[in-house]
Design goal:
The structure is a single chain. This protein is an alpha/beta fold. The protein is built from 15 helices and 20 strands. Helix 3 packs antiparallel against helix 5, helix 4 crosses helix 5 and helix 10 packs across helix 11. The chain starts with 7 loop residues before the first helix and ends with a strand.
């Protein structure tokens, strides 16, 4: 296998003038332009013009009109049909979307095909199944009858309105699909704000959504800097904000939304996710699983493990197996099908990771990696570090990169305290064949998701989200319905 050839449709798409998708139309931008850089080469591959105030108003107005008009008039069954059609089109244009995503994000072409395309279609089809299953309850009030009258009551779920979806750069298509599907299946409409680093796939996705039958205005894409996102949050026509991104930005988004109009908000934020190897662990299986989930997409995954607690007696064994496996990874272009480890997604994140590497070298903790590669693009080595103490910065600051930090422990009873010693609470994992011990530990671990002998994987049927500083609200399962609908009570006397 070798570097793939770009499709002619991808080459042509890169040459197009890029801006926004507003009220069913692809539009050029009126605001400042910015370049899209290929992280594997550092070269600018496309230009996108940002939105101005008039285009933002047009996007929100289009979403409001669709919410009250054609999308409101679409039956629940037909909404599900439309989402399934979009899944079909994503699969039909899968290679095109995968190549665009890899060019913008540095994600392995295999990962773009599997997750940005394959899993996006899976999630869409799952959400489509909920379209006809959003229900209320019937209730009997206890009012006393004065003259033979009777009472009954029921509840109904109603869509909240226009949703502002703010999408990060690490999985731009799949995370956008979570927001698109949740909003549309509940009857909401939305305006998406992509990351400035990865906007192209979402613009193409919006075209496919229109082709699938999503009415004009129901899905809009606005590009620009963080100022565009901030103005969306403040807009009186926006009823809900769904944000995925860093904890510092998420805190600002939540505070701004509440201050604006008590706007509903779902925050899916980062984590400093813990994994614990219990004394009976199969080291080879655990190391293989943690490398698969901790270094996928160069560690740029919010749910990935970053700190690993290891029985002291097995620390050398674990570190040696990590180092051997990481040293054998093939590093190179994400468009090369033989490559296992590609570049970081952008220059800003590259510089941030170099700061973490410098810290690790200063403290003498590096087992392997910890350096930038001398080549074009934003390449670094996959890195393993051993912490000196539970207070070390590398055990507490989210790196969001290819850096796992090990810390030895002496007794399993220490694990809840070690794993919970974090402001974050997104995911955690236990690696053991002792199910009894694992089940006793699970209630003591402060995380939105706890895995056993696995980590990072998401399924649309299983609710996902964080506690503490890792977020507010849940994605997936039936839990998303609460966040995209209002509960209305109706009472009748007869």
């Amino acid at each position: 296998m070798s570097r793939i050839d770009l499709l002619l449709s991808v080459r042509a798409y890169l040459e197009r003038p890029h801006g926004h998708f507003i009220d069913g139309q692809y539009q050029t931008g009126n605001g400042p332009a910015f370049g899209i850089t290929d992280p594997a080469t550092g070269e600018v591959i496309a230009q996108v013009a940002g939105a101005d105030a008039a285009q933002l108003e047009a996007a929100v107005a289009g979403a409001q009109a669709a919410f009250r008009g054609p999308w409101a008039e679409t039956t629940p069954y037909q909404r599900g049909v439309v989402l399934n059609r979009l899944a079909d089109l994503i699969e039909a244009h899968g290679e095109e979307l995968a190549q665009l995503e890899t060019l913008c994000s540095g994600k392995s072409i295999h990962l773009s095909r599997l997750f940005e395309v394959g899993q996006s279609a899976v999630f869409l089809r799952y959400y489509a199944g909920w379209a006809t299953k959003i229900t209320g309850e019937t209730l009997t009030p206890s009012f006393p009858s004065q003259a033979g009258e009777r009472y009954t009551a029921f509840t109904r779920r109603e869509p909240v309105g226009v949703v502002a979806g703010i999408v990060p750069w690490n999985f731009s298509v799949m995370i956008a699909i979570w927001k698109i599907a949740a909003a549309l299946v509940t009857g909401c409409t939305l305006v998406l704000k992509p990351s400035e680093y990865t906007p192209l796939t979402l613009l193409r996705l919006a075209e496919l959504a229109l082709e699938a039958g999503v009415p004009a205005g129901a899905l809009n894409v606005l590009n620009g800097t963080g100022e565009i996102g901030a103005r969306l949050i403040d807009h009186p026509g926006v009823a809900k904000v769904s944000f995925t991104g860093s904890v510092p930005t998420g805190l600002k988004v939540g505070q701004q939304a509440m201050a604006a109009n008590l706007t509903r908000v779902t925050l899916e934020l980062g984590g400093k996710n813990a994994a614990a190897l219990l004394p009976d662990v199969d080291v080879a299986a655990a190391v293989g699983g943690l490398i698969q989930t901790g270094y996928v997409h160069q560690g740029q995954v919010c749910a990935a493990p970053e700190r690993v607690y290891v029985p002291r007696a097995r620390l050398d064994e674990v570190a040696a197996q990590f180092a051997a496996a990481l040293g054998g990874l093939t590093i190179g272009s994400p468009l090369n099908e033989a490559v296992q480890f590609g570049p970081l997604a952008n220059r800003a994140h590259f510089d941030k990771m170099l700061g973490f590497f410098e810290l690790a070298h200063q403290e003498g903790q590096v087992v392997c990696g910890g350096r930038a590669l001398d080549r074009p693009g934003y390449f670094v080595e996959p890195t393993l570090v051993i912490a000196r103490a539970a207070s070390d910065r590398l055990l507490h600051e989210e790196t969001f990169g290819p850096l796992i930090c090990l810390l030895p422990y002496d007794d399993v009873d220490e694990l809840p305290g070690l794993m919970n010693d974090s402001p974050f609470g997104l995911t955690a994992s236990l690696w053991t064949n002792d199910l009894s011990r694992a089940l006793r530990l699970i209630p003591q671990i402060e995380a939105g998701t706890v895995y056993i002998n696995m980590h990072t994987f998401l399924d649309p049927a299983v609710p996902f989200g964080g506690i503490k500083a890792s977020g507010q609200g849940r994605e997936f399962g039936s839990a998303f319905i609460d966040d995209y609908t209002e509960l209305k009570s109706v009472m009748l006397r007869y």
